[in-house]
Amino acid sequence: xxxxxxxxxxxxxxxxxxxxxxxxxxxxxxxxxxxxxxxxxxxxxxxxxxxxxxxxxxxxxxxxxxxxxxxxxxxxxxxxxxxxxxxxxxxxxxxxxxxxxxxxxxxxxxxxxxxxxxxxxxxxxxxxxxxxxxxxxxxxxxxxxxxxxxxxxxxxxxxxxxxx
Length: 164
Hints:
Immunoglobulin-like; four-stranded antiparallel sheet; single chain; alpha+beta; elongated; 2 domains
């Protein structure tokens, strides 16, 4: 009986450590590009009458266990030229505890959304860029999250800006 209790306690501790490690590693995760770190949606805005691109927006949605919220900070590095964006909107939602969210993978996670509107000059640079890196930051963090676009994402962004 004592042996079974010890084994049960050990298994319970191992499971608890694994779960806490999973939560910690998710909030401190690493990624090779922006779309592997979070959900992104870049949209070009085109005037329907003239067919000219007049702007673009980027939405970044990050699901994390930590409760830190995004700061009003966003920079974009286009082939070594860094631009600090001013037109930024931020929203945060507390975690959900609903069983229906287990299948979507958002249960227990905070949802942070950053929405950026780009000026036309930056879009012109993006349409000719070889490398684009974006940076954003969470409160109480000394370091910004700085990630490049993958080649596929950069081409998608360029395709959203056909008539500049």
